[in-house]
Amino acid sequence: MGLDHWLTVEFSSKNENEKIKTEIPLPNHMLDTCYENSDSNESYEIVRWRKFNAIHSWFVENVQNGIDDCGKYEVSFEQIKKIYDILSKVLYKRLDPRIALPTKSGFFFGNTDYGDYYYQDVKWTKEELESLICTIHPTFKATLGEDVNIKYFYGSCW
Questions:
Q1: What contacts 145, CB < 8 A, 6 or more positions away?
Q2: Three-state secondary-structure class, residue 5
Q3: Among residues 46, 39, 63, which one has the least CA distance to residue 135?
């Protein structure tokens, strides 16, 4: 029990009557997490967090308009790059984490200290998003072409 949250990518055909064929090289951690949302959509989990309340708080404030309701919210690629930049600056001590990426208390949301666990989560998330930005997203764009929509979503539950 506690805060679980994730970032997914969803592929859909721009032609509503056409089912997409996801024949792209997916990272190993995504291979077992395909969810068919409808006849034309496929969704893959990219990142899964457990009780990293600071990143959850950032998504709530910057993507969900302050509404923390365990919903599914679309995240722009620009927002992904923005949080990656914040994580990098916090990790390399160019930004104060209490201001740039503050922790948030909540029902089983985990630790709110700015100690080793906080920085481990920051580093791990930065690496995961770096992979998405530098490798996965360009591969999706190059392989799937212009006939496929690529959308990212953030979701949570507790």
A1: none
A2: strand
A3: 46
- Separation in Å, CA 100 to CA 54, 61, 63, 66, 82: 10, 12, 15, 16, 11
Q: What is the pLDDT of residues 49-108, one digit of tens each?
A: 999 999 999 999 999 999 999 999 999 999 999 999 999 999 999 999 999 999 998 777
Sign (positive or negative) of CA dihedral 108, 33, 79, 37: negative
Q: What percent of the chain has pLDDT over 90?
A: 61
Q: Give the largest Cα separation in the chain, rounded.
A: 51
pTM metric for this prediction: 0.86
SS3 123: helix
